[in-house]
Amino acid sequence: MSAVFGWLFVAAMAAVPVVFPDPYVLSVLTSAGIFIIGAISLNLLLGYTGQLSLGHAAFFGLGAYASALVSLGFDIGIGFGLRLRLDPQPVFVGFLAGIAVAGAFGWLLGRLAFRVRGAYFVVITICFAQVLRMVALNWVELTQGPMALIGIPPASLWLPGQGVVPLYTKPQSFWLVLGVGTLAFLLVRQVVQSRIGRALVALRENETLARSVGIRVTHYLVIATVLSAGIAGAAGSLFAHYVRIIDPDVFLFIYTVTMVIMVITGGKGTLWGPVVGGLIFGLMPDLLRGSAPPEAQWIAYGVLMILLVMFLPRGIVPAVAGLLPARRRPAPAIAAMVEPAP
Amino acid sequence: MTALLEVEHVAVQIGGLVAVADLSFTVEEGQVVSLIGPNGAGKTTAFNAITGYMRPRQGRIRFRGQDLAGLSPERIAALGLVRSFQRTSIFGPCTVFENARMALHLRGESGLLGALLRLPGMRREEARLREEAFAMLDFVGLTARAEVTADSLAYGEQRRLGIALAAAAAPQLLLLDEPAAGLNPSETAECMALIRQLRDRGTTILLVEHDMAMVMRISDRIVVLNQGRIIADGPPAEIREDPEVIRAYLGTSREVPHAAA
Ligand SMILES: Nc1ncnc2c1ncn2[C@@H]1O[C@H](COP(=O)(O)OP(=O)(O)O)[C@@H](O)[C@H]1O
Ligand SMILES: [Mg+2]
Description:
By secondary structure, chain A is mostly helical.
């Protein structure tokens, strides 16, 4: 899909709060948008390095907790009679902290887990998310455990002339998510359409051959994990300041699964895949809500997923790209790599 | 003058099996050296040890005087020593042009900052790599196939792409593992011409090949391996007359036609 199409899409989305100022529509789109950012980050790992992280919600949750705690402030004992104290910080500091903490854990997991690949990586990532959930449940002094962190301040933005403006309204939250989502998309695009992106795809397609031409495995996989975790952390931070209450359930497996479904049905290893898959599976539960009982909804959800995987195993975006006439340019190689041609 | 590659008393074990028992030879800069021997002699294993895919149990391997012990394949490639694979190895689902660009990894240096900011230096590098990729494809005669996926190439074309990938970053020393395997006579002739051109560009070549006619014509020196040991080492004319080589090849006379004659 061309850049023009992409910017049209962003412009159309940006116009939604003006055209349909319906708070319900906006809240549904905002939540979907947050998960789409999560899916975009997962796609960098799953789609471009081929590594399946089934603990991706861990980075999302880390971003959510780190951002919430930094903006709420905390005062906890860390043993030996010492205390660690932080006064409440502006939300944007929390946002950056969320990205940094998630990114740092991404680095750690990247270094650790890429020594073991495939199934072992999957198992390690699952455990990682579970361990974090247990920590969030039991470190009550810091996280309030199952009582949840409440009263998280809304996101704010510094605007020239107006100072720091809290984003309370639905349209404001929506635009913020759209903005961060666009940035996440562009970041992934820049990385994927570069020497780094080629190295990642080379490692995914044939690691032995990739190493023989000098591509450093750990180096590139760690870059991908850190970026992926950082973006997931940003999504988690947006989530925390949007719903303004978080509990240890942000680490639940189901959130990871939701993101994996979005990426796979949309088309892993394509830039638009997580957006398309995210729109379908992020919006469908809410679209069905009024018209069908919950059981029927879940069945519809499952059936659609199975049908998509059966009939479009590579996902929706590659299938649609295959229907369009291929553009012929002297070297449309990147386009061919990013959006598989017929 | 020290040799470009020095292999000294290298032994490699795979499981309990001694695949290479005691291997010593050198490759001088600018030459084409062939490593020959019957199937299972340990040639591919020797390549794996030299390029860091397997750890020798004993011995030393030096490239440009530097000990390669403990270095990973990617580090060894960065030093200028790249190998091709006996079994066709390509980035299947990617286009031929993409394959070439991936193989040019070492010819670029832009990192994360360059990728994110698209600074002029990074754009220039991308343009240069694009040109080099086309030049490489031109060199192996695959320009017309640049936009098809590597999977969909004919077998002979895939073999040529494999050589192109190994040669792309212009390594000082190129290890080719049976580049002509499965090729018909005219393709084999093309392959030989390609190797000659690479040598003329200044690439030193260590070749493993079963086509003896090709080996005899192209090599400056031949090292003969049998059951993990070297049994002969010399120029083609000498190897052809070597009684031990003839004995090792008896029964597989196809391999040394001149010796059998
Ligand atoms: N991965 C492996 N596992 C077990 N044995 C192997 C493996 N690779 C090679 N070998 C054995 O090592 C010996 C040398 O093999 P190889 O180096 O492939 O020989 P060549 O390339 O000269 O035909 C053979 O006996 C072969 O069976
Ligand atoms: Mg072999």
